[in-house]
């Protein structure tokens, strides 16, 4: 990506009229996602010398909302009074819900029926789905939340893509994904040159398109999962796709085309763990999503991640996280950093 200054006499990137964006925030929304969505738009206005984008902050009641860092944000308008936005993005943590769901969800659906394009960033896909506005759309769901999302909304198609650019329903996973999504809005309104300069302003090294997958951590290593050796990466994908009915190491080895001994050796070299240990971590982290972000019974969660009973799951849960799923549920109201609960 080459950074070039825009010619001040160039009028080719003039937007016809400002795009009006609304950002509907819920308690505990990730502050980084909001700034990552808005700042590229602000920079695009300054670079292009025009008000190509306008934005407004919205909450259900119009009252101040605390973000994930505990800082208050004062919206400009209540949801019930919104009438003139081209796009409305929901920002939330996964448990974000309206205090008055019937009228508020009805308002969202009314706006969509009358031309507003709804979308969501990170955990905002949860309240958007609860409003019934993701039906028939593929949505980007952050890997931290995907197991919980699919448990609550099994009928909605999800993807590991960082962003989905469906014009009727744009979604992004995480703050960097929100930045990429906004860059594409800039490109659509003002052209590639302005979009590139915006990216360079913020030293955003790579402009990602739909189809680029999220990075996920390779547990107990310094790598991301996409940088693991090919056979190990294939095995990890199989682990993630088979939680309720776990595969044996031999079955996984057969599917990736190597012997069980080769798979064991490859895992040890790449991760310092056996395939079984790595698989267990994936299942435990999926279980934790369900404990934190759903109301499912702990016994049903144990079954969903391949355990015959809760006691067996609890032993592994305590071993990995240092506390039981029962404790996690009891303490869920505490400030999330006490339990290192991820809210990207």
Keywords:
13% strand; alpha/beta; transcription; Rossmann fold; Arc Repressor Mutant, subunit A; HTH_AraC; 11 strands; transcription regulation; 2 domains; 43% helix; 344 residues; 7-stranded mixed beta sheet; single chain; globular; two-stranded antiparallel sheet
Q: Which range best describes the helical content: under 10%, 10-25%, 25-40%, 40-55%, 55-70% or over 70%?
A: 40-55%
Coarse shape = globular
Mean pLDDT: 89
Query: CATH H level of the largest domain: which superfamily?
Result: Class I glutamine amidotransferase (GATase) domain
Domain module tally: 2
Strand adjacency order, main sheet: 5-2-1-6-7-11-10
The quaternary organization reads as: single chain
Number of strands: 11
- Number of helices, where a helix is a run of at least 4 consecutive DSSP H or I residues: 13
Going by helix content, strand content and strand pairing, the class is alpha/beta
- Which spans of ≥5 residues are poorly predicted at pLDDT below 50? 4-11, 335-340
Which CATH class of the largest domain is shown?
A: Alpha Beta
Return the CATH topology of the largest domain.
Rossmann fold
Q: Separation of termini?
A: 26 Å
Per CATH, the architecture of the largest domain is 3-Layer(aba) Sandwich
The SSE string, one letter per element, is EHEEEEEHEHEHEEEHHHHHHHHH
- Largest β sheet strand count, sense and barrel closure: 7 strands, mixed
- Estimated share of beta-strand residues: 5-15%
């Amino acid at each position: 990506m080459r950074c070039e200054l825009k010619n001040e006499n160039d009028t080719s990137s003039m937007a016809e009229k400002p795009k009006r964006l609304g950002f509907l925030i819920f308690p505990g929304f990730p502050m980084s996602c909001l700034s990552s969505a808005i700042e590229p738009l602000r920079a695009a206005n300054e670079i292009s010398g025009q008000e190509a984008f306008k934005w407004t902050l919205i909450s259900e009641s119009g009252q101040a909302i605390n973000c994930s860092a505990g800082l208050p944000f004062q919206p400009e308008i209540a949801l019930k009074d919104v009438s003139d936005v081209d796009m409305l993005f929901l920002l939330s943590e996964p448990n974000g819900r309206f205090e008055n769901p019937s009228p508020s969800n009805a308002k969202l659906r009314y706006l969509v029926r009358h031309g507003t394009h709804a979308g969501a960033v990170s955990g905002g896909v949860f309240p958007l789905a609860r409003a019934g506005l993701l039906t028939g759309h593929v949505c980007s769901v952050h890997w931290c939340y995907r197991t919980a999302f699919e448990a609550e909304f099994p009928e909605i198609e999800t993807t590991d893509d960082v962003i989905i650019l469906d014009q009727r329903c744009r979604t992004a996973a995480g703050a960097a994904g929100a930045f990429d999504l906004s860059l594409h809005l800039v490109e659509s309104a003002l052209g590639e040159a302005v979009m590139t300069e915006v990216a360079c302003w913020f030293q955003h090294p790579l402009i990602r398109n739909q189809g680029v997958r999220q990075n996920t951590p390779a547990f107990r290593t310094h790598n991301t999962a996409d940088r693991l050796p090919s056979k190990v990466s294939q095995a990890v994908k199989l682990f993630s796709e088979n939680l309720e009915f776990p595969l044996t190491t031999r079955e996984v080895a057969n599917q990736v085309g190597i012997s069980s001994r080769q798979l064991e050796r490859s895992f040890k070299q790449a991760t310092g763990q056996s395939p079984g240990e790595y698989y267990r971590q994936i299942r435990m982290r999926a279980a934790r999503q369900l404990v934190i972000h759903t109301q499912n019974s702990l016994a049903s969660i144990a079954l969903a991640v391949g355990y015959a009973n809760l006691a067996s799951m609890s032993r592994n849960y305590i071993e990995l996280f240092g506390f039981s799923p029962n404790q996690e549920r009891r303490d869920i109201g505490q400030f999330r950093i006490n339990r290192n609960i991820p809210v990207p």
